[in-house]
Structure formats: C-alpha cells, structure tokens
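> @MW can you paste both from yesterday?
MW: sure, first one:
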Amino acid sequence: MTMQTTLLIIGGSDAGISAALRAKELAPDTDVTLLLADSYPNLSICGFPYAFSSEVPSWENLRHRTLADLEATGVNFHLETTVNAIDPAAHRVTTNRGDFVYEKLIVGTGALPETSHIKGADNAFVLHDMADYFAIDQHVTTTTPKTAAIVGAGYIGIEMAEALVKRGVQTTLYQRGPEILPTMSPDMSHLLHDTLRENGVDVVTDYAVSEITSDGVVIGDQAAAFDLVLVVTGVKPNSTLLAHAGAELAENGAVMVNDFMQTNLEDV
C-alpha cells in the first residue's frame, strides 16, 4: 500500500508535533501526515520521574494534547508506524505499514540514550520513551527492589533518584565527574548534592561505572550489588535513517543543516 502526502513528518515528540501544527497554521489546506513509532504523541517526557513517583497522578497527565485534539487540527496521524528507510530520490519513505510518497519531508526523530561506553549496558534500564517508563514502573511494582543504582547525575538521574527513594528503594547515584549536574555552577551543584543526601539518596562522585552485570555494577575492580540499575548518561543523535539516505553528518553524528534546517538531501 502506498499513500501520498504533501508534507510527511517522522517523529511525534515536540519537534514533529510543533512542525505539523505550524504547517497547518501557515497553510491550512496542506496535507500533513505524521508517522509515530508508538502510540503516545506529544508527551512531556521530562515528566516521567514525577509520574513514576506519583507526584503527577498518572502518566496520562503528561500529555500536552490528546490524540483527538491533535487530529482535530487536520493532521493525519499514523501510530505504531516504524520507518525502515528514506529514499530521497523517489521521495518515498518505507515503513512497517506501507510506503509514503511525499513532496516535503521533515525528520524529527530526536536522540537516543548513549550507553555504548559502559560494558553490559543491556543489563540496565534506560528512560527514553513510554516503553522504558512502563518497563521500570512494572519492575518496581512487581519485584519491589530494595536497592537501585543510577549511573549519571544529570537532571533525569537526580529526579529518578528522588522518585525511587519516594517509592521505598534505597538509591545510590553515581557521577563520574567531581560533582553532580556539571552544567551548573559548582556552588549550586554542591547545594543540590547535600539536599539529595539529606533526602536519603547516596551520592557517589568521581567514580565511573565501567560495567553493568546482572546483579549490579562494577567500578574499577570493585563490584557493588543492586536490584535495579538505571543508566542516564546522556544521548546521541538518532540520525541513522538520514545517514543511510545519504545525509551529511557532523563528527558527533548530528545531521548537518543550513539556516533553514534543510539537509543536503532534496526536500528533506
């Protein structure tokens, strides 16, 4: 099955949704189609820790807009649609639900968790999308872990440490640098460090986790046992689709664009 559209958008988080809604504002008669790999468009994924701790009553409250709200704008949504390839010469996108032929294409696939620097990272949880959220929540609910290690002390790591403690899990937060939240001033980071400890989080700095095993973490030549391990050590560009289509990438894997966010691929 092949479907045709004027503007095709891959990705249903903030970038893709914003592009779709803006396109309909500027040109209401434009045929806009959005492809989403799961069934959860326009979620505030930064709120995952607060839904996990029940400070936000339900993950449903993380929706910026419901699917009905979004469809009312005239955008055509295709959920559970995984893109396999982009053929820029044919202006065609191949998916698990058929092909889409476009006049213009916007790719808003964002980033992916970066765990390649840690051996055995497949033994740990990550927190990137709703599938990850459900997996962690179910694990904590059904197995009631007593201890957890969080690798990475950025915003999500700190928020999840707080959330796990609120759910009764003794939590240790590991940061390979000298202080948590390295993007902030040292004085502020140190203040937050003390606050975490006062609220029951064990904070360990200047220690890099080199390996994750089925029952804990390894730091140097020392092993520490934990019932749950979560890795939140940053992200990498989710640019594989465009790379395979011939898009120019920067050294870090990010897609190169001009001042109008255009790639070197025609109409992308």
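MW: second:
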Amino acid sequence: MRIVTVAVMASTLAISAVSQAAGVIPGVNGSSTEGTSQHSGQINMFDGISLTEHQRQQMRDLMQRARHDQPPVNVSEIETMHRLVTADNFDESAVRAQAEKMAQVQVARQVEMARVRNQMFHLLSPEQQAVLNQKHQQRMDQLREVARMQRSSEMTLFSSNTRSNQ
C-alpha cells in the first residue's frame, strides 16, 4: 500500500510541477499580488508583495524562459505507472523503479524552479525581500502548528487504541 501511495504522490507531484512550470504564479502572470491568492492549492511565493510593472515583466520573462527550457511532460511514464498500479500481479520492484525514475525528473524540475525563484527573489528590493521573508516565516509558523496538532492527534489515537486493546 505504501508503494501505491508513493506512486500516486509521484504522479501528483509531476503534474503539479508541470502546472507550476507552466507559469501559474499569480501576480507574475497578470493577476494581483495583493491578499492571499492561491492556485492549485499552493501558496504563491509573492503573495502580499506589491510588484512594480517592470518587476512583473522581468518575472514573466524568467517564467517564459523556464517554460521554454522545461522538457515536455512524459505521458508514457505516467501511463507506465498506471499499468503497474492496475496490473493483476503487483510488482513492487517495477513500481519502485518507476517511482524513482519519476521522482528524479521531479527533483530536476524542482531544482530548476528553485533557480528561477531565486532569480525572482533577487529582482525584489530589500524592503520587498523583508516582507517576503516575514510572510514565509508566518507560513512556517502555521505549518509547525499543523504538525504539532497532527502529532498530538496521533498520540491521542495511539493511547486510545492501546487502552482499548488491554
């Protein structure tokens, strides 16, 4: 079951990376950067940052170059994983190999997107960078709180299961 979960997650990550690489960064592709916009369930790196038109254009240009440099989605890899998941006999080693192959592509995409985002970050003024870092810290605090609540929930579930088994 864990392998199937990994396979599904790898496919989902591949698809989300493609949409991200396709330039769905709100505020850079023409929509507002004010407020907390979200796209595909992802928080935009530049939410809350007021960009000048020149910065927006520079970021659009960076994204366009990144899209141009990205290899196309390899549909056959996704179809191969689907065939492995739906096969009559589960072949863990084949699924693992396919998942690792897809994960390597995903890692390369993420590295490229990090490079582009680094370039975008350095287009910002020091004040804009400070706001971006502050927003990032707020999101990290929220994620830490979610993780803490999840651990607390798991502990409660574990202790109630232990008591009921006695």
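> thanks! Residues 13-42 have pLDDT under 50 and may be disordered.
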